[in-house]
Amino acid sequence: VGLDVKVDTEGAVCVPGDKFFDIVRQLPDEDIDLKANEDKLSIDCANSHFQLVGFPADEFPEFKPATEESSPVHMGELLPLLRKVAFAAATDDTRANLNAVYVGEDIVATDGRRLCKVLGFDKIEKEILLPLRSVRMMCSIFPEEVVSMRMNEYRVYFESENVVFATQLVDAKYPDYKSALDVKDMPIEFTVDRMG
Fold first, then answer.
1. 33 phi and psi, to 5 degrees?
2. CA 3 to chain CA centroid, nearest Å
3. How many CA atoms lie within 13 Å of 16's alpha carbon, on the beta-carbon side?
4. What whole-number distance in Å separates Cα of residue 31 and Cα of residue 175?
5. What is the C-alpha separation between 109 and 72, in angstroms, rounded?
6. Rounded to 5 degrees, what are φ and ψ at 55?
7. Per-residue CA distances from 1 to 17, 79, 108 (Å)
8. What is the mean pLDDT of the chain?
């Protein structure tokens, strides 16, 4: 994430991103002071003070920018679809293919007991499995605007003016969700009034 900031003294530290975003999101709309000290980050804003423990910045893995050809993706179309299905994905990390959201001709999530599917998102040509944690982070940090997307067989990159988001793709086979939704042999059919 890139922001315009006033720097008094340069410093760097690595801290858990989800904890950092959770703290900053709750702070009042005032200036935030950040102070890095080896493996700690102090966050001060108004009457609030937080300290996160992390690790030295030089231990952070090297970030290699994507070199693949980019294509535009409208997050205003993709994010609502991801939000609609993400609740059905497994939260158990031991089954990586179910702890993910399938994006292909349909967008699908299942934990093996329940399944949610929405019509496909034809802006992504290749079928991919996005980790559930990455889907949740994308939904919280990206505005609903057009971003550029780059993809190789291991990672997908989404890039806006101020944010570069890269995530490892899940390397696993997704279950055959179409057969689970094949209802032609089911004898009972009923209609439900959603407003009732």
1. -100, 125
2. 20
3. 7
4. 48
5. 24
6. -150, 160
7. 11, 19, 28
8. 86
Taking the mean position of all CA atoms in its chain, how far away is CA 30? 27
DSSP state of 195: T
Asked if 108 and 174 touch (Cβ cutoff 8 Å), the reply is yes
Q: Are strands 48-53 and 164-168 parallel, antiparallel or unpaired?
A: unpaired
pLDDT for the residue numbered 184: 65
Phi/psi at 94 (5° precision): -70, -20
Distance CA 178, CA 181 (A): 5
pTM of the model: 0.74
How far is Cα 122 from Cα 38, in angstroms, rounded to an integer? 46
Q: How many residues does the chain have?
A: 196
Phi-psi region of 46 (alpha: psi -120 to 50; beta: other; left: phi over 0): left
Helix (H) or strand (E) holding 168: strand 164-168
pLDDT confidence band for 124 (50 / 70 / 90): confident
How far is the C-alpha of 41 from the C-alpha of 15, rounded, in Å?
7
Sole residue written with tokens 């031991």: 94
DSSP 87: T
Paired tokens of 92: 């158990």
Amino acid sitting at position 146: V
